[in-house]
Amino acid sequence: MANMSNPIICFDLDGTLFDPQGRIHPRDIAILTSESEINFIIATGRSLQSVRAMFTKNDLFTDVRIPFPLVLQNGSVIYKHNEILAGFFPFSSDTQSQLIEIIRNFPQISFYLFGVKETHLLWSTAFGLDSAERFGMQSRPYQNNGTNYNFSKIMCVSEDNDLMKKLAQIIQDLEVEISFSMETLLEITPQGIDKGSGLGQLLSLLNKTTVNLFFAGDGENDLPLFDTAQYSFAPAKSPETVRIYADEIIDTGKRGLLTPMLEKAGYL
Fold first, then answer.
1. Domain that holds residue 174
2. Are 77 and 200 contained in the same domain?
3. Are strands 84-88 and 77-80 parallel, antiparallel or unpaired?
4. Looking at residue 146, what is its pLDDT?
């Protein structure tokens, strides 16, 4: 386990550590599997199952638990080292009921409802299923059968960005946080829950109150951590609306993501 007094290297996955095909740069794989005191934390909108699926695709941690702390589902689920569940922050029952009532009226959009252990799908579309396959997500159909599900994130998937914006306007007055991680992905979490709050909760549980945080991300849902970081990075292919908040732009195709971050943090 890394020494928590060292600088923290925190990073998003999709579009940041992963390229558009879900691949990790060979240099980054070598760094992540090295026996070192580098203090990594992953912060992503993905579920644990989805993160593990993509790491397996890259031959990473196939037979062991992920050794790094994790901020998942946009901060609504957090894990300590080795996948030890440390916190789950679901919607209130009233807010969840309101959301489900609204999204039932949008069959053109696929909605993935994330719990702590499994994901449910409301409205199956070709684009939604293709996106799930690309992200390595497994889901089961959502059925309102009286079961008391607790969800902490809803991911809305559609090629129709105008329709997604319409949905965002309808739900903006509910007790939720809303962000577009991509043009085709609208993500909803409980009010006050985002990657920044999730990292704060995790660091508190790790007894780490003062940190030197180096963060890299590429989406709107990463912006709370840009505000927190001592120094921030964005991949060169990030949207301009994200790049303007970064201290440094990285061409991840050349040396990967982690080498420039480690150099800036003083590890290399």
1. 93-190
2. yes
3. antiparallel
4. 55
